[in-house]
């Protein structure tokens, strides 16, 4: 089974999980990336069964609208029963690294508002300890060099993601070689650096459930 087929299977599994809970006024939180895209495409066939969505990126908003699914501003929505999104890595405690697609800040905001975060991944994202995937940090452009020096003091090797501007007009530093022994503490420590908007550790608000695609089928993982 290819990685793409595993992603398709978890997108379908997430859809099967939420379908019985959809009501005509339901608004869904929708993430960003290739797995989230597959979920959006599968969701489209059921668009008459719910109200619309809040998207964690312009790219996802565009895809939802192309399917005819109404997209709401988060400021006009107070209740999101589900947030469905992928991840770059997850550990046994359902802590995540996200932001490979540079959408980490909006992803973290939509996840914060949502009741249940259903994370959809293929088995290549499973690790014992987070940190093989470089940790994305969204930074206000003028603070880039300062924040990079501070990240070196924390033991990481930050690299500027050239040519990438986030939906919020900021830049991304990808931090290599971090030893993430305490994801919650590091998430907080990096967010304390002046000029950082947020970082891609989802530990204070991790996933509620992981649906993981494997060649043998979709596994459900809870902490
Ligand atoms: O955090 C993300 C985007 O910012 C994505 O969820 C993450 O990069 C996984 O993407 P994919 O589903 O394409 O593997």
TrEMBL record:
Keywords of this entry: Isomerase
Broadest EC class assigned to this enzyme: isomerase
Record pathway: Carbohydrate degradation; pentose phosphate pathway; D-ribose 5-phosphate from D-ribulose 5-phosphate (non-oxidative stage): step 1/1
CC terms in the record's Gene Ontology section: cytosol
Residues at the active site: 107 (proton acceptor)
Entry binding sites for substrate: 32-35, 85-88, 98-101, 125
InterPro entries: NagB/RpiA_transferase-like (IPR037171), Ribose5P_isomerase_typA_subgr (IPR020672), Ribose5P_isomerase_type_A (IPR004788)
Gene Ontology molecular function: ribose-5-phosphate isomerase activity
Residue intervals passing through the bilayer: none
Alphabetical list of Gene3D superfamilies matching this protein: 3.30.70.260, 3.40.50.1360
Enzyme Commission number, as recorded: 5.3.1.6
Catalysed reactions listed for this entry: aldehydo-D-ribose 5-phosphate = D-ribulose 5-phosphate
UniProt cross-references to HAMAP family, sorted A to Z: Rib_5P_isom_A
Subunit and interaction comment: Homodimer.
Its job: Catalyzes the reversible conversion of ribose-5-phosphate to ribulose 5-phosphate.
Family the UniProt entry places it in: Belongs to the ribose 5-phosphate isomerase family.
Protein name in UniProt: Ribose-5-phosphate isomerase A
Lineage: Bacteria, Pseudomonadati, Pseudomonadota
Gene designation per UniProt: rpiA
């Amino acid at each position: 089974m290819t990685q793409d087929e595993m992603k398709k299977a978890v997108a379908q599994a997430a859809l099967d999980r939420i379908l019985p809970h959809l009501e005509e006024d339901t608004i869904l939180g929708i993430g960003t990336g290739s797995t989230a895209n597959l979920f959006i495409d599968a969701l489209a066939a059921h668009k008459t069964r719910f109200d619309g969505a809040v998207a964690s990126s312009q790219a996802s908003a565009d895809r939802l609208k192309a399917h005819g699914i109404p997209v709401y501003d988060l400021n006009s929505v107070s209740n999101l029963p589900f947030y469905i999104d992928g991840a770059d890595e997850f550990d046994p405690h359902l802590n995540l690294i996200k932001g490979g697609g540079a959408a980490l800040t909006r992803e973290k905001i939509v996840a914060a508002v949502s009741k249940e975060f259903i994370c959809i991944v293929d088995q290549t994202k499973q690790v014992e300890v987070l940190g093989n995937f470089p940790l994305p940090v969204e930074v206000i452009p003028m603070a880039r060099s300062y924040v990079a020096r501070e990240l070196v003091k924390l033991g990481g090797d930050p690299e500027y993601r050239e040519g990438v501007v986030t939906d919020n007009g900021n830049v991304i530093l990808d931090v290599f070689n971090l030893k993430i022994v305490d994801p919650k503490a590091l998430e907080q420590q990096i967010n304390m650096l002046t000029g950082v908007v947020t970082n891609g550790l989802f530990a204070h608000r991790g996933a509620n459930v992981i649906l993981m695609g494997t060649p043998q089928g979709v596994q459900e993982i809870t902490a």
